[in-house]
Inverse folding.
């Protein structure tokens, strides 16, 4: 996801000016500089044309997230990916009277999910405590301790979406333990977003199958990513690949 826009600022010349360097005459602007200054001042008095933001969400369906932290292996989904997966989750929610959704290490999905379906009950499990801004719907999660979670979360979710932070066998295995901890029963709907290199392991661990839909990130990554499910989505998500 996109990093917050940094506001530009005008800085003074950092050089130290001594008394001998002081000019009593006021500095004169060139014709072009004066015109640019007038244009800048005029823009400041115009009403803003930026999309309206409410709780970090703009009217054109874009959402604002904190900046990616490469040290935490954070790579936000692009808008199309986030909306596609969020729509699938909301479709699955219709199968239950009181659905609960767990989002493991996928804050982009959580944010879009809450935008499209603000009333959906969703829990974000994430290592980055910047997302504690989501209050009671945030749970600190370290994949190295896959089941060190509040007991009220155990077997309490009909839909679980996971995006392991690293493309390693160890990481996927530990996240699989977390999925099992959270899923309500064997018929829970599970979605996994990870590298294509994990396809065989994902199938062995939890019976995941790759879908035709290919997730993408706002940052261009070298690894090919896939979306896996433990259920047949039919014609959605491009269907299961044969």
């Amino acid at each position: 996801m996109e990093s917050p826009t940094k506001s530009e600022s005008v800085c003074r010349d950092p050089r130290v000016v001594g008394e001998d360097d002081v000019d009593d005459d006021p500095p004169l602007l060139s014709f072009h500089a004066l015109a640019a200054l007038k244009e800048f001042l005029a823009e400041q008095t115009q009403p803003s044309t930026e999309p309206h933001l409410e709780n970090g969400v703009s009217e054109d369906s874009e959402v604002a997230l904190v900046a990616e932290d490469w040290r935490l292996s954070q790579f936000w989904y692009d808008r199309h990916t986030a909306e596609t997966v969020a729509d699938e989750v909301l479709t699955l929610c219709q199968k239950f009277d009181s659905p609960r959704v767990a989002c493991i290490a996928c804050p982009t999905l959580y944010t879009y999910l809450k935008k499209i379906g603000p009333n959906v009950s969703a829990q974000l499990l994430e290592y980055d405590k910047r997302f504690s801004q989501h209050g009671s719907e945030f749970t600190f999660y370290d994949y190295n301790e896959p089941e060190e979670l509040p007991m009220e979360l155990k077997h309490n979710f009909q839909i679980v979406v996971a995006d392991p932070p690293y493309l390693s066998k160890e990481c996927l295995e530990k996240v699989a333990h977390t999925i099992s901890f959270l899923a309500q029963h064997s018929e829970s709907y599970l979605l996994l977003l990870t590298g294509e290199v994990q396809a065989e392991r994902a199938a062995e661990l939890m019976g995941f199958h790759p879908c035709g839909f290919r997730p993408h990130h706002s940052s261009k990554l070298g690894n090919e990513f896939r979306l896996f499910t433990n259920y047949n989505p039919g014609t959605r998500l491009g269907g299961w690949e044969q």
The helical segments are 31-44, 79-93, 107-116, 169-182, 199-206. The mean pLDDT is 79. The first helix runs from residue 31 to 44. The CA atoms of residues 6 and 67 lie 11 Å apart.
